[in-house]
Design brief:
This protein is an alpha/beta fold. The chain has 11 helices and 10 strands. The protein has helices at about 10-20, 40-55, 70, 75-95, 105-120, 160-170, 190-205, 210-240, 245-250, 255-265, 280-290, and strands spanning about 1-5, 30-35, 60-65, 100, 135-140, 150-155, 245, 295-300, 305-310, 310-315. The longest helix has 30 residues, at about 210-240. The radius of gyration is 22 Å and the shape is elongated.
Length: about 325
């Protein structure tokens, strides 16, 4: 299942995967999601369908009946559209076994993601950016009507520079003209502003910077996997019989490991996934280090943390706001 806007990047991916069909390894289907966010989106979908026909690949069009922002109150337009796009791709993937959702994010997208994470003060793990292969629960946001389904996401182009994709596309299929989305030129979105103004300046000082950031992300991803193992071991060591975490045990951990344990405990509260802010995480760490009970820390998505009776209790309240704790414009480009 290929996320296919028909734009330059997804067209390059579709060309590459289409040329592999004779090997008999898979049969890609190009899925275009019409968010109906602007006039002319139906024409873009028609053009994308024409591109699919030119490649000889099956095409599926999904049209949203309701504006994404209305379906996800509290999320920005970009984040709401991203959620619905992933939901549509996951729904098509669920009909095909085995299925993988392939996305056309490249080295430039990875560099943008890392810079966005750094600008909002994310932790070291954010340096991993987007993973090449990752299983994602869809929906990861609160939706009482839909049970999350694990969806395998594959980004095969993460180490490939944008200009190499363009060269490949123009050499292989010079007659195919990609769909051009004017919203990608709107610098009100931080990702676009970084793409148009920040990355070119950095590249002028250090040519090839985007590819090196992509390599950096791969190194961070490997080290994060090792640190995750240490975190899991620390959680198992400090867990009480009723599943809570023993404060005296937590206080013996090095502070960086304690911070990771706290974040992992928050994420483990279930759906919707909690992405705790640095400020909330540090508040819980300080409460553990003080060791005194009584403090209740609101984390988001109805999750609260409190130190009670020598235990750190991280629980999800019944009443949740449904608001995603991530900034709408700072997630993966989807």
């Amino acid at each position: 299942v290929v996320g296919f806007s028909g734009g330059p990047d997804s067209l390059s991916l579709a060309i590459a995967l289409g040329r592999m069909v004779p090997l008999g390894l898979f049969q890609p289907i190009l899925v275009h999601v019409d968010h109906r966010l602007r006039t002319g989106s139906a024409d873009d979908a028609d053009q994308a369908e024409g591109l699919a026909a030119g490649l000889g690949l099956p095409f599926c069009r999904r049209v949203l009946s309701t504006a994404p922002a209305l379906m996800h109150p509290g999320a920005g337009v970009e984040e709401a559209a991203r959620r619905e796009r992933f939901a549509a791709l996951a729904a098509v993937a669920a009909q095909r076994e085995p299925a993988v959702v392939a996305l056309a994010h490249h080295a430039g997208d990875q560099a943008e993601t890392i810079l966005l994470h750094l600008l909002r003060g994310a932790g070291p793990g954010a340096g991993a950016g987007m993973a090449e292969v990752r299983s994602v629960p869809v929906p990861w946001w609160r939706d009482p009507d839909v049970a999350p389904v694990e969806t395998l996401i594959w980004r095969p182009l993460l180490m490939v520079p944008r200009d190499e994709l363009q060269t490949y596309r123009e050499r292989c299929c010079p007659a195919l003209r990609p769909v051009i989305d004017p919203s990608n030129d709107d610098d009100r979105f931080r990702r676009n502003a970084i793409r148009h103004h920040v990355l070119p300046v950095l590249e002028s000082f250090s040519p090839g910077m985007s590819e090196r950031l992509a390599r950096f992300a791969g190194l961070v991803e490997d080290e994060e996997a090792w640190l995750d193992t240490l975190t899991d071991e620390a959680i198992a060591h400090c867990r009480s019989e009723d599943g809570m975490l023993v404060v005296s045990c937590l206080r013996a951990l090095p502070r960086p490991l304690l911070r990771r344990v706290v974040r992992a405990s928050l994420v483990a509260t279930g759906e919707p996934v909690v992405v705790p802010s640095a400020e909330r995480t540090e508040a819980i760490v300080r409460a553990v280090e003080r060791g005194r009970g009584g403090a209740t820390i609101q984390v988001g998505e109805g999750v609260v943390a409190r130190v009670v009776g020598g235990l750190l209790r991280v629980e999800r309240a019944q009443d949740t706001s449904g608001r995603d704790s991530r900034a709408a414009d700072e997630g993966d480009p989807g």
